[in-house]
Amino acid sequence: MSSQALPSIEDQLLDLSIDERIRIAKWIWNDLIQSPDSLPISDAVKAELLARLEDADLNPEDEEPWEIVREDLLRFLKDS
């Protein structure tokens, strides 16, 4: 029997193609979001999210529609 250790899961994942790793990442993400209440969120993150929601409610004129944000992002990525 060989004394070589089996490759770690991380090493095995890095041996996969980019497309295979993306598929696995999507599968894991889709699995995780099936139970959002079980995902750990720190108190600091919760506080930040609540503060942002409150700010959005108090200052709706500061918000931009998704369509505009998306166009700006795509333009930025294209020009980069």
How would a textbook summarize the main sheet?
Answer: none
Number of domains: 1
Number of strands: 0
Rg estimate, integer Å = 21 Å
End-to-end gap: 53 Å
N-to-C order of helices and strands:
HHHH
Name the overall outline.
flat
Report on the structure:
With 80 residues, the protein is mainly alpha-helical. It has one domain. It contains 4 helices and no strands. The protein is flat and about 60 Å long. The model has no long low-confidence stretch (mean pLDDT 91).
Question: What's the layout of helices and strands?
Answer:
Blueprint: H1 9-14, H2 18-32, H3 43-58, H4 66-79
The gist of it:
The protein is mostly helical and 80 residues long. The protein has four helices and no strands. The protein starts with 8 loop residues before the first helix and ends with a helix.
Sum up the structure in keywords.
mainly alpha, 4 helices
